[in-house]
Amino acid sequence: MIKKMFAIVAAGALLVAACGSDSDSAGGTDDSKETITLIVNPWSASRLNVEVAKNIIESELGNPVEISEVDENDAMFTGMADGTLDAVLEIWPSGITDAENKFFEDGSVEQLGDLGAIGRIGWFVPRYVIEDNPDLASWEGYKDPANAALFATAETGDKGRFLGTDPSYSEFDAQIIENLELPFEVQFSGSEPATVAELDSRVAAGEPILMYWWEPTAAVSKYDLVKVALPPFTEECGASQASGDGGVDCDYPEDPIIKAASAQLKDKDPDVYAFLKAFSLSNEDQLSMLPAMEIDGEDPADVAAEWVDANADKWKAWLPS
User: Rounded to 10 degrees, what is the CA torsion of 211, 296, 17, 213?
Assistant: First the structure.
């Protein structure tokens, strides 16, 4: 997501103290150790990644962990570059701009390798939309004004509504719509929960909805969402996404999600650095936790703790020897 699916304290970000306490973790934290600040982005999988890492770092390595809510990518990279923020565990590469890549190039921010999950961003509709109108399986079907009218709202008039999510995410949908000459208008829900609420309402009423979304998420399964076929991603189109030149007219690429850290983290705490470099969650790992958070409304720290309890054989291999 993401894409960005991403402000440090100086830029007005909310820095949230670690949710656990000494009594919450098996080993407790050691106040003599460095506090580690992990970035959480405004989507569920990012929160769960961080809660899993926080749980293990505090209980096994003894470092207190703080969680920083970051909604803007430039603030995220700037914070890691100056050492204010230590690491982020979920970056969707397709959302990295040329300006952000410069932090990797100058060495102030280090890539920590793949997370292990593969992200897929795109346009999604409930399956019944395509069953009722098979032309809507592909973007060409959305060129027909009669089909676009199926998605119209009072605010969009004759045009169909395309539902965006959080405007801070790397969404290129307005460009795609303009460049493909589709009679649609982008409106933003404002957040992931707001999009899910709107989706839930539309599905309950059996009404069409076309939206920016991604997987892995529990909503894809719960609402039986189907990805609409857009023109295939190309290197040229990807360059437009990175440069911001307005020329995006293709699908989002498949994203092997990566991790990143401040270049200062390795000296700040080598054990935490080694742990985060080894840290790995697959699509299946994330999907085993997401329904409890997204559908059942469980606290993400509790969901992460349950995963940690059930997967000791996996995460113990991440610990430095």
Answer: -10
Q: How far apart are CA 19 and CA 243, in angstroms?
A: 38
- Please give the Cα distance from 39 to 76 (Å, whole number): 8
9-119+254-318 has which fold? D-Maltodextrin-Binding Protein; domain 2 (3.40.190)
From the list 271, 238, 272, the residue with the least C-alpha distance to 253 is 238
Cis peptide before 232 (omega within 30 of 0): no
> What CATH class is the domain 121-243?
alpha beta
**CA nearest to 222, candidates 295, 281, 274:** 295
Domains 9-119+254-318 and 121-243 share a fold: yes
Task: Report how far apart, in Å, the C-alpha atoms of 15 and of each of 31, 67, 142, 220 are.
Answer: 19, 6, 42, 31
Q: Which residues contact 251 (CB under 8 A, 6 or more apart)?
A: 122, 229, 230, 231, 232, 233
Q: Mind listing the pLDDT tens digit for each residue in 242-297?
A: 898 999 999 999 999 999 999 999 999 999 999 999 999 999 999 999 999 988 99
Where do the structural domains in the chain lie, given as residue ranges?
Answer: 9-119+254-318, 121-243
Of 272, 271, 148, the closest CA to residue 210 belongs to 148
Rounded to a whole number of angstroms, the distance between the first and last alpha carbons of the chain is: 33
Q: Which two tokens stand for residue 39?
A: 């970035």
CA-nearest of 272, 317, 302 to 116 is 317
Cα–Cα distance measured from residue 6 to residue 17, given in angstroms and rounded to the nearest whole number:
18
Q: Which residues pair with 39 in a beta bridge?
A: 68, 88
Contact 230, 253 (CB under 8 A): no
pTM here?
0.79
| Cα(246)–Cα(132) distance, integer angstroms | 33
Mean pLDDT, rounded, for 143-168: 96
